[in-house]
Design a protein that fits this description.
The complex is a heterodimer of chains A (328) and B (257). Chain A is built from nine helices and 18 strands. Chain A is an alpha/beta fold. In chain B, the strands form four sheets. A seven-stranded parallel sheet of chain B has the order 9-13-8-1-6-7-14, sandwiched between helices. The termini of chain B are far apart. In chain B, helix 2 (69-77) crosses helix 5 (188-195) and helix 3 crosses helix 4. The chains are: A alpha/beta (328), B alpha/beta (257). Strand 18 (305-308) of chain A pairs parallel with strand 16 (233-235) of chain B. The complex binds flavin-adenine dinucleotide and adenosine monophosphate (AMP).
Chain lengths: 328, 257
């Protein structure tokens, strides 16, 4: 397989997402033993702007496609990613395990005759072999696996699972505009409207801090408790399924087996019992804080810090305390 | 319209999955199994389309060991018309190839899948099927409207914080998210009718995939339980004090704030 690594570098209006730097750090670590180089791909309006700083992060070339990619079209993106992989002679393609990867990585893998590994939490390389670990069964089991095929490995990496390090020496970071134009058949599935998120809060699956509330909050109004604490911390708010089913929070906030998987540095669970399906979505969080009035609640079994008491008293006090210390 | 739906049998969300002490195997026999929850949304979506377009039929496909027949029986009991069981144990890549071979013969106008199977959590098969059949796919839709000409769908899906509206030309693959619909339960009559329907059973070889090609490219070297957390500190002082103590611990011990 090709020795090089291609990083699919996502950006928002020309500003790279934080996960890109995780991918670039991993890419450098696995390129070295293979004697390969790191390449990156940025797509859509602002791609060229986003590409500018990747040289400093170890990318030899940064491929861009902008024209014809104004609208999100799955097959056009697949064409660009598979095309860039071929130009880059990539044996490994790295995505952040987010919406773009969910939509395109499997199709890219199939087009290139390669293999997909979703949600990797470990990835390393020896000269002719890759090793990875990924959670399966909603995080109840992890599998470690080896890969030595000639065909490319397409790995999506769970956000926040890998550290970020800037290299001592930059790479050339040459920007190259790829000559890839979407054809009508690439537009058979095309986004015609986008409703932007109404809040400026961080994306749940990428946030470094998540504050979630459960059914016992009792109403949508009471979820303000969760939002206030989240906002004091610059965190993303989340919810248990029971809270979502009761209509206190939208499904987009649901954490767990049938909701989103989060992997923040800090997860604060407010009035959440800790059902196995909820744990499936957040158990890999680095630190877990639980606030629950039942000292025997299952959530305390995996919490690093547990506050046993009434959330309606504790959470406002906690919000004030965070505001106080974060200001000073 | 010809409608197909892909259903996978998976361990129940509460099943007790045991890793063998040497980490070389996973105890799966005897655990309770269910139709993967997202595939239930796919099946309901298929039935809704069938009901809205007279003369339509729903063909269910499941790849997996003998128990996977359960998926097809379930499909029959809620109104599925035909079924194919691809017999064997396959990884998601191989399953996609085999399902694509069956779909190639059905020539369905629309194929529904779940967004992910909740055992391997790969999010692979819908896009892979789209690629193998050279038709478009959409991932994780939460709302669907069939166009008046019945040659397209308007789909909505949540995408990194926002929501996208997608125009999709048929034939196509649609992967389904929670919130798309409320899957129906079988009626007694449905259960009885299901007994009269028989799925077609195929092997990988019959679908043109040789034994030698079934080995997954990723070789599993170890199964492990998720990293265990040590029981943490419980703080049960009065609210204001507890809040101060927690913030102190997060700053001084965990060093994350
Ligand atoms: C197939 C399937 C999929 C599922 N998927 C998910 C999923 O994705 N996500 C998910 O979360 N769940 C999921 N569930 C549901 C899950 O089993 C639980 O029912 C759910 O997580 C419970 O939510 P909860 O903790 O908010 O509510 P409860 O279990 O009702 O817990 C409420 C908690 O609040 C505490 N409490 C009450 N009052 C106070 C107070 N004043 N102060 C402090 N604490 C208080 C109680 O002690 C209790 O522990 C799924 C279930 C199934 C069967
Ligand atoms: N063995 C299988 N049999 C039938 N359908 C499957 C199988 N594997 C995956 N699928 C379908 O593809 C979807 C995504 O699965 P996966 O890519 O494995 O996460 C599932 O929700 C099913 O609809």
């Amino acid at each position: 397989m090709g020795a090089n690594i291609l990083v699919v570098a996502e950006h928002v209006d020309g500003t790279p997402k934080k996960s890109v730097f995780e991918l670039l750090t991993v890419a450098r670590a696995i390129a070295a033993p293979r004697g390969g180089q790191v390449h990156a791909l940025t797509m859509g309006p602002g791609a060229l702007n986003a590409a500018a700083e990747f040289g400093a992060w170890g990318a030899e070339s940064v491929y861009t496609v902008e024209e014809g990619f104004e609208k999100y079209a799955t097959l056009a993106l697949v064409k660009a990613i598979a095309g860039a992989a071929q130009v880059a002679e990539a044996g490994v393609i790295l995505f952040s395990a987010g919406s773009l990867a969910r939509d395109t990585a499997g199709r890219v893998a199939t087009r290139l005759g390669g293999t997909l590994a979703s949600d990797c939490v470990e990835l390393s390389a020896a000269a002719s072999k890759l090793a990875l670990t990924r959670p399966v069964y909603a995080g109840r089991v992890r599998i470690s696996a080896e890969y030595s095929s000639e065909a490319p490995l397409i790995a999506t990496l769970r956000p926040n699972a890998f550290s970020i390090e800037k290299p001592a020496a930059p790479a050339s970071g040459t920007a190259l505009v790829l000559q890839i134009t979407p054809e009508p058949e690439d537009l058979r599935s095309i986004v015609t409207e986008v409703a932007k998120p109404s809040s400026t809060r961080p994306e749940l699956t990428e946030a470094s801090i998540v504050v979630s509330g459960g059914r016992s909050l009792g109403s949508a109004e009471n979820f303000k408790l969760v939002y206030d604490l989240a906002d004091a911390l610059g965190a993303a708010p989340g919810a248990s399924r029971a809270a979502v089913d009761a209509g206190y929070a939208p499904y987009s906030m649901q954490v767990g087996q049938t909701g989103k998987t989060v992997n923040p540095v800090l997860y604060i669970a407010i009035g959440i019992s800790g059902a196995i399906q909820h744990l499936a979505g957040m158990r890999t969080s680095k630190y877990i804080v639980a606030i629950n009035k039942d000292p025997n609640a299952a959530i305390f079994k995996i919490a690093d810090y547990g506050l046993a008491g009434d959330m309606f008293e504790i959470v406002p006090a906690l919000t004030e305390e965070f505001k106080r210390v974060l200001k000073s | 319209m010809k409608i197909a739906v892909c259903l996978k049998l998976v361990p129940a969300t509460t099943a007790d999955l045991r890793v063998s002490p040497d980490g070389q195997s996973l105890q799966l026999s005897g655990v309770e199994t269910i139709v993967s929850p997202y595939d239930e949304f796919a099946l309901e979506a298929a039935l809704k389309v069938k009901e809205s377009v007279p003369g339509s039929s729903v063909h269910a496909i499941s790849a997996g060991p003998d128990e996977a027949l359960k998926c097809l029986q379930h499909a029959f009991s809620v109104g599925g018309d035909a079924g194919t069981h691809i017999k064997g144990t396959f990884d998601a890549h191989t399953a996609a190839r085999l399902i694509a071979a069956v779909l190639g013969e059905i020539a369905a106008d629309v194929i529904f899948c779940g967004r992910q199977a909740i055992d391997d959590d790969q999010w692979l098969v819908p896009g892979a099927l789209g690629e193998l059949l050279n038709i478009p796919h959409v991932t994780a839709v939460s709302s669907l409207n069939l166009g008046p000409e019945k040659t397209s769908f308007e789909c909505r899906r949540r995408f990194e914080g926002g929501e996208q509206v997608i125009q999709l030309q048929l034939p196509a693959i649609i992967s389904c998210d929670k919130g798309l619909n409320e899957p129906r339960a079988p009626t007694l009559k449905g259960r009885l009718d299901a007994k009269k329907k028989q799925p077609v059973v195929k092997t990988a070889a019959e679908l043109g995939v040789a034994e030698a090609e079934l080995a997954p490219a990723l070789t599993i070297t170890r199964y492990s339980p998720p990293p265990q957390k040590n029981a943490g500190k419980i703080i049960s002082s009065p609210p204001a004090e507890a809040a101060r103590e927690l913030v102190r611990l997060l700053r001084e011990e965990a060093k994350i704030i």
